[in-house]
Each structure stands twice: as C-alpha cells, then as structure tokens.
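FAQ: What does the model actually see?

It sees only this:
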Amino acid sequence: MKINSIKDPKEAKFSYGTIDVIDLNNVDIQKLEIGKVQEMAGKASLQYIESAVKLVMEGKAHAIVTALINKEAIHRAGAKFPDTRKSSPTSQRRKSCNDAGS
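And it is asked to produce this:
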C-alpha cells in the first residue's frame, strides 16, 4: 500500500494500491505519542475536520469519512462540545434504570 501525500484533492491519483491523504503538516511526529491523549493530536483532528467540511462546502469533495475522534484530545485543544455521555438517551435510560433499582 502506498501513501500519496497531497495538499489539494486535484492532486489525488485515485489508483489501486494507493491511499491519497491530505497532509496539513500540523503534527510534529517527533512529539506524537501513539496511544496517549495529546492536545496537539486534538488540535490536528479539529483542523482536519474543519478542512474536510470546507472542501465539501466548496464542492471539492462529496463526503467526509473519519476514523475515531478522541473527544478528550479535542477538548484539550480547546473544543467546546457537550458531554454526550451524560445527556444521551442511552445514558438517561441507564440512569432511570439505576434509580428504579435503588
């Protein structure tokens, strides 16, 4: 498998055996610690999401696909988002069931 690092979707090869990846050059590989929550990684995640949304809105891309996004990392990077673990329907049902058993 080959990685084709690009700046713009127009540079993509779209060829078998090659993954075209937009590289924002926003991660210092020397400081990246795999498996550890880091502000740098969260900031990069947010920048990639923002870039992807912009590409779709400009008509340069048709969809967005992500891997898992670590909410703790993007929170450390300054993102504000609701803690869905506390407010999701599933967590509300779990709380109701736990309260009923008390």
